[in-house]
Amino acid sequence: MDSTAYKSGVTDAFTRAAGSYDRGGVGFFTPMGRELVRLAAPRPGERVLDVGCGRGAALFPAAEAVGPGGRAVGIDIAATMIEAAREEVRRIGAGNVELLVMDAERPHFPNASFDLVLGGYSILFLPEAPAALARYPRIMAPGGRLAFTCPLFVPGSFPFLPPVFTPMFPPSVFAALPPDWQPDELRRRYNGWLSDVAELEAVLEAAGFTGVEVRDQTVPMTAESPSAWVEWSHTQGMRLLWDRLPVPVAGELRRSLVAGLTELAAEDGSLVIDTPVRFVTAEIIS
């Protein structure tokens, strides 16, 4: 895998999606971010780093938890995401939040800068994640903790989405995608080590962490309507898939998704889909 080209593609996708990211009548990243912060349990006065912070789904709850005596720093490789988060800082007057454009694979901070490092659905997008994670203990204080989320890869299902979506993908989608975008290859390429608990523990321990805990639970994904969900899917990681589909195939996938989600919708057209998410916590080796 050409990590430079890969990272450029991810950056471009999220740069273009920033204006509507985590918006549009769909709720998922915000409740997941709050649950991540709840499990990480930042304490008043602590210093928190949110890796791949996006518009701040985990960053702002963390900032609230550490209070005015603490500090919450968000980094993202997409400058438009950082600007969107800065607008929120100005709107709510979050004086303890700092936002920086930075590549999460190479965090540039002094030693022992943070007590807690968070990552909401961001670690999986790092092309050299195991090596990148090994750079974080240096910038963490003694007793520093790590907490992040990633998709729960379910065998036989399309990666990154709840299993209920898999039957909604028409065969034309897979026929149109190159070999490195087939489901099994996607799992491998997007840090497939996250799917195996033993391998996940081994990677984190090699990177300098201990006390690894893995919790698999569901986060409710809500949407105002099937079409709202499809529009929202263009504003997050799935945009990488949409961008690779020929227009006719993308249209077929859209129609299939709307039809399938309509069958799952409530009488008012709204959706609640339980989405499996893996929550991982650890601490640095003293």
UniProtKB/TrEMBL annotation:
Residues 48-144 form the Methyltransferase domain. GO terms for biological process: methylation. One of its GO terms (molecular function) is methyltransferase activity. CDD domains: AdoMet_MTases (cd02440). InterPro entries: Methyltransf_25, SAM-dependent_MTases_sf, UbiE/COQ5_MeTrFase. It comes from the Bacteria. Gene3D superfamilies: Vaccinia Virus protein VP39. Keywords: Methyltransferase, Transferase. PANTHER family: METHYLTRANSFERASE (PTHR43591), OS06G0646000 PROTEIN (PTHR43591:SF99). This is Methyltransferase domain-containing protein. The lineage of its organism: Bacteria, Bacillati, Actinomycetota, Actinomycetes, Streptosporangiales.
